[in-house]
Amino acid sequence: MKILFINPPIRLTDKPRHIPHGLAILANTIRKKMGITPEFLDINAHRYNEKQVEAILRSTEFDVALIGGLIPVYKRIIFYADMIKRVNPNALIMAGGSAAMSVPQLLLQNSKVDVVCAGEGEKAIIALLEGLKDYKLEELTGIKGFYYKINDELSFPGGLDLIEDLDSESAMPAYDLLPMDIYLSNPIIGFGKDIDFISSRGCPFMCTFCYQPWGRRFRGHSVDFIINALKHLKQNYNIDFVSFQDDEFMANKKRVYEFCEKVQQHIPGLLWSCTGRVNLVAEDIVGSMVKAGCVSISYGFETGSTRLLQEMNKMATLELMQKAIKINRKFGIMLPISFIIGMPGETDESCRETVEFCVKNEIPLKSIMFATPYPGTKLFDLAISTGRIDQEKLHEFVLQLEDARDFVVNLTAAFTDEQLIAKRQEMIDEVCFRVKPVPAETYTEKLRNLFGPLYENFLRDKALMKHRAEHGGIDIF
Ligand code: B12
Ligand code: SF4
Fold this sequence. Notes:
Helix 10 (223-237) packs parallel to helix 11 (253-266), helix 11 (253-266) packs parallel to helix 12 (283-291) and helix 15 (348-361) packs parallel to helix 18. The chain starts with a strand and ends in a 6-residue tail after the last helix. Strands 2-1-3-4-5-6-7 form a seven-stranded mixed sheet, with helices on both faces. The chain has a six-stranded parallel sheet with strand order 8-11-12-13-14-15. Strands 9-10 form a two-stranded antiparallel ribbon. The chain is an alpha/beta fold. It is built from 21 helices and 15 strands. Cobalamin (B12) binds at residues 10-11, 18, 20-23, 25-26, 66-72, 94-99, 101-102, 117, 120-122, 125, 198, 210-212, 245, 247, 369, 374-376, 402-404.
């Protein structure tokens, strides 16, 4: 059986920096468990145009195509599924990732995809592919973990339990099948060769705008698994930096401390960043993290309004947010913060509270997204039940979804669409006017302290500097 993985393009306004973890993990799982080495067509990394993709599909032999990603690739899965069936009508198309599992029926009804993975792919894909060696798909529709479309009929025999032990049942991404040189030349947060890594699944919190397919139970890879993967990345790709993209890297304190103890011992000089949460940071843990090479902890503050924090179930307070700012600043590490405008209940007054919070704490309002009801979230259910999204036009709605910097739907009662779009810009402008920027020399000094020679090399690379100036925006202190 010949298997082809396809990573559709995402965030075309930016360079490709994030490796397709889900697909690359499955590619490695298939190689390990079935002894088949799949082909990997990484359209996102290479930014192939349609003609190039079609030519590659024509010259590649494959029986099964596996495609997936997050919700903005929904439309691209549909597009490439069409192309695949045109080029290779007998190929079976399987889709997964949040673009597929948050709207499985919708995707099957509106595309040439045959099968959608309903959750974690590791166990499910092996069961299905093993079955396909001897049987046709029609005979396998009892295998759990997938939605099937056979002769336009949809069926779903049920989901699978979540993986208990990620170390033994999941795998490291198949880095060798990816164009790592492309990913490593586009740093995410750090300087030098920066790679992203996901070391856990699940988040104990339930913010209303967030999609949590893995539920509230935090499941982490062991520290030894992480260290082995990072050692592999150091030895094979000479990485300088790791950006942990976990939903909540700090959810398990014990794991964080153990990681801090071991990382420099095994990979001396490695720098890293991670996601944090205001109720999980404290001076002692951040101190250990910084000693172990951490240079950035990012936070979703979302709003300066206590009322809205409660309404979005953020389980955070303005006091905790201020404490997190102080801690990051005390240790001199970066402080990327994101905000949301336009949650249901947003008013002029709550926008004012956000602006005043930023001004008081001297935070630039660089990253402020429109509240977007992504499928699978509480916000999505609310937008449907209140008629903000027309259930009859769900497919059209999902086709529009991209980056949350783009406005899609107004969830507020206080603003018209135009007012909300204008409000966001007003807030950015006002904070920019009232918060004094960190002087250039202090800023350079801070980056030098954190990154040492990696920063000096960056200063010599004019192209990278230009790109970072245009697309960076996360190096806030
Ligand atoms: C890294 C990441 C990104 C990266 C993209 C990486 C990439 N190359 O695709 C970047 C930073 C670009 C990104 C951007 C956005 N993101 Co994002 N991102 C993530 C994050 C943190 C990790 C994704 C990941 O790799 N997970 C780990 C892998 C192992 O899980 P997985 O992909 O789901 O794969 C498993 C299964 O789904 C399945 N599977 C996956 N693919 C396939 C394919 C087949 C054929 C099969 C059988 C199975 C299968 O098997 C895998 C192993 O079990 C997730 C949060 C999360 N925990 O997943 C959010 C997440 C995916 N992002 C999300 C969102 C909303 C966005 C944005 C739209 C937000 C924004 N603020 O603008 C932007 C979109 C930008 C754009 N213009 O398109 C949402 C998606 C919601 C939804 N309903 O789809 C998530 C879930 C965050 C959240 N909790 O709400 N994101
Ligand atoms: S926004 Fe962060 S803390 Fe809230 S549920 Fe999502 S991952 Fe968890």
